[in-house]
Amino acid sequence: MLNGKYKLGELFDIPIYVDASCVFLLLMMVVNSGSLTYGAGAALILAISIVAHELGHALTAAAFGYRTRDITISLLGGCASLIALPRKAWKEFLTAIAGPLVSFVLAGIGFLLFETVPTHNRWLASMFYYMGWMNVMLGAFNLLPGFPMDGGRIFRSVMRIFFNREKATLIAMWVGRALAIVLGFSGLDAILSGGSWGLVRLLIAYMIWREGYREYLAVREEERYRVWTQEDFEARVSPPPYDL
Which of 98, 114, 143, 146 allows an S-S link to 208, with CB 3.0 to 4.6 Å? Predict the structure, then answer.
């Protein structure tokens, strides 16, 4: 246990943790499904899907020589803590998009398995169906340009065709903040109208607003004081069309 995090094990030498906030997520799943069996099954599928999504990022980064400290599942989803992020735009693009691609592959597997389940096995059929749609939503949601979410990182990597890393991060941060405002208002509307997941939307909006700014500050300081590597030099002097 580490600050409310519980280690589940390791995959590809990467420690996998679950945050204590996942207890709240499990309760929400059970309440929304109206059944302990369905709720627990859905929570397990969601956890596995999140780990697979984050492993997509981690293993792609590893292929470029970047290590991942750990993966944590929490109320707000998953987080792969990379020790360092790829600096070249095309590497950042591939690392960011790998997670959603894994989710879409899992969605396809879920729908295929759903078609093979006998009609009398309603629980298993519903779990595979849930696996399909949950991964569609997980992949699609992460493609939204809410920096530092996957879509925000993809957007920043594209902006680096036109701007340096600091300016591209600033633009991605403000685009992400615009999304956070929309998400925040939708969360408030869900809470006031008695809808579900309103609080989670508010928390995600807050995370995007706060973490995007924190990462921008880190990039700004890094760009001012870091020592350039050979990869940085190549990323700066290479013609933009060949860098993505």
Answer: 146
Residue holding tokens 């295929």? 112
Tell me if residue 54 is catalytic.
yes
Q: Compute the mean pLDDT over every residue in the chain, rounded to the nearest whole number.
A: 86
Assess contact for 151 and 140: CB atoms under 8 A.
no
Q: pLDDT tens digit string along 175-213?
A: 999 999 999 999 999 999 877 778 888 989 999 999 999
Whole-angstrom distance, CA of residue 229 vs CA of residue 218: 18
Q: Where are the domains of the chain?
A: 1-142, 144-244
Q: Are 20 and 5 in contact (CB under 8 A)?
A: yes
Contacts 24+ apart (CB under 8 A), 167-175: 169/215, 169/216, 169/219, 169/220, 170/216, 172/145, 172/147, 172/212, 173/147, 173/212, 173/213, 173/215, 173/216, 175/145, 175/147
* Alpha carbons 221 and 226: distance in angstroms, whole number: 8
Longest dimension (CA), the chain: 64
Of 10, 54, 92, 221, which is the active-site residue? 54
Q: What is the DSSP letter of 242?
A: G
